[in-house]
Amino acid sequence: MTATTGRLEIEAINKSFGPLHILKDVSLNVRAGEFITLLGPSGSGKTTTLRIVAGFLAADRGRVVLDDVDLTHVPPHKRDIGMVFQNYALFPHLTVARNIAFPLEMRGLPRAEIKRKVQDALDLVQLGAFGERKPQQLSGGQQQRVALARALVFEPRLLLMDEPLGALDRQLRESMQIEIMKICREVGHTALYVTHDQEEALAMSDRIALFNGGRIEQIGTPEEIYRKPASLFAATFIGESTTFIGEIRQGMLAANSLVLPIADKALRQAALGNGDRAALVLRPDMLRIRPAGPAGITPGTASVRGRVESQVYLGTTRKYVVKVLDGPTALVRKPADAADGLVAPSGQEVELSWDIEKAAVVPLELPEANAREHDRASAATQIDLRTRARA
Length: 391
Known about the structure:
CATH 2.40.50.140, five-stranded antiparallel sheet
């Protein structure tokens, strides 16, 4: 189904609560039928943005436009927007069918039409036989489906979801991710989805808007956000990574005693030149690991040496935590059944290598003092990784 309505434009939204500047010129264009996730840490502004789009909060400056209609001063009940809350917000005294019928009753639709639309919505979320039950008679996943059906039953132009899976356990959460994606694509609604869960955002989104400190740090497809981070925050917040921090010198990154080659294309894209502070970012699957041996030069690759701190078997993959000599702690993942059969014990010296063209480089926009703070934070993160690796 191709959506023809639901084009959303968020234009330079600003919002403050007293002295706290929560949103700072947030702008985002969402195409009709697109599933966009607002991702970021707590307090980054993603939920505030969603509530301004819904009309529950008023922006200090900026506009919200849906299908070329300015909604900035339109009350929530007249915006033609569906909303799914984290806590479901179902009426406990009403049946499932009456909960779903509520927005239709508020719009004054004929009883026969309400009955038909409610049954269609129940069938859509695979709860066709549950209409006469009360919410407390349903599981958490079923209640969330009811909340989704209620948000979709009046065929809104835009669907908003505020961490709707946050209260579910991991297995049910992953199942509901698939259900929500399937339903949204089936009905063709434009969706704006808020989460702080990185894996959830990568799995569900057409595009991700990554929030940081009240601004959108980067917008892109899940693969673009993961493979081509635009900043150090994007590189370290999304997924796991190894970062070498240093200074650009003659097209190389000088990081302590290490001198690491960088692809010319990556330097141009990041607009980096001699003397600029930068970070080289490597994802765990980019790194190859082998026992240390005689140094060899393979065209198009870079390598460093390190010592294995821990390794753990995870079924389909094996994870290594490697302390790079005069460098950061690296995280490496490789298929557990890889042909080389490497199982490196703790303490073994190894060589890590990677394809230069696949590595990302980002400007280090923080001043020196903050860069040192990042190093300390990164070290703390690696301690947590080592702890999880042993778990």
